């Protein structure tokens, strides 16, 4: 198992899916995972949540959902999807928000080792 596979396993990232989406190029996968750490969607989501801005939560959760889906981050994608669905129904789902935070930190902590 490669170091990248170990990082993906630790972060609950679907290594095979991520590799497939990025042309089976490990260097490209590493580059995109490192860029994920620079993405500000989660930070903006936190701000929107604190302000109880439902539209902002939906917008930033949807962005984070797309980014995470493209990188095989299935648990983060699912949690973001829950936030988006709740927001589109006019509410905020605290459990989904907390799960987004747990998954996001888990991924960032693991990917930071690359």
From TrEMBL:
Positions of modified residues (Phosphohistidine): 62
Phosphoprotein is among the record's keywords: yes
Domain of life of the organism encoding this protein: Bacteria
Keyword vocabulary terms for this entry: Phosphoprotein
Signal peptide stretch: none
Gene3D superfamilies cross-referenced by the UniProt entry: HPT domain
Gene Ontology terms describing biological process: phosphorelay signal transduction system
Matches recorded under InterPro entries: HPT_dom_sf (IPR036641), Sig_transdc_His_kin_Hpt_dom (IPR008207)
Pfam families named in the record: Hpt (PF01627)
SUPFAM superfamilies for this protein: Histidine-containing phosphotransfer domain, HPT domain (SSF47226)
Span of domain HPt: 25-114
Protein name: Hpt domain-containing protein
Organism of origin: Candidatus Onthocola gallistercoris
